[in-house]
Structures are given as C-alpha cells and as structure tokens.
Specification:
Keywords: DNA-binding
GO molecular function, one term: DNA binding
Protein name: DNA-binding protein
Shape: globular
Low-confidence stretches: none
InterPro entries: DNA-bd_dom_put_sf, HTH_17, SinI_DNA-bd, WH-like_DNA-bd_sf
Mean pLDDT: 86
Number of helices: 3
Strand content: 5-15%
Organism: Nocardioides euryhalodurans
Number of strands: 3
C-alpha cells in the first residue's frame, strides 16, 4: 500500500480503490460491486478517480461490526 497513512496538514488521507481492497482483503472487483449496489464505504470523487477517506472507511467498518458472533450488524 503506497498511500501515506498519517494525515498531512490536518487532512484525512485518501485511499484508492486498490488500497481499500488490499486493506479489507477483498478483490478490487468487490469494491466496484459494492459501489454499484450502494453497500461500500462512501467515496470521494477526485476528477475521474474515486478515493476513500480513512475516517469514512473506519465508520463503515464500525457500522458493520457484529454485536455478537454470527449476528447481523446493529440496525439491520
């Protein structure tokens, strides 16, 4: 992963789709599928590219945390 993980000048670092896929351990195509289905973390459009803030990714992960093993995420 080439993305700098420490904020520069107070800005939240941005992850590429490839960075996000590597971080989550899923194929890049899964990230694209999630975007089409509205299931993945919020993206930020930078020109033609889609990036993801670490803050949004962490919030998305927390929203999908199971309350107990095998249970669906809270509020679903």
């Amino acid at each position: 992963m080439k993305t700098q993980l420490e904020p520069t000048s107070g800005l939240d670092p941005l992850l590429s789709i490839e960075d996000l896929a590597e971080y989550l351990g899923v194929p890049v195509t899964t990230i694209y599928d999630w975007r089409v289905d509205g299931k993945g973390p919020c993206g930020v459009r930078v020109g033609r590219h889609v990036k993801f803030t670490q803050r949004d990714v962490q919030a998305w992960i927390e929203a999908h945390r199971e309350s107990r093993p095998g249970a669906p995420p809270e509020g679903r």
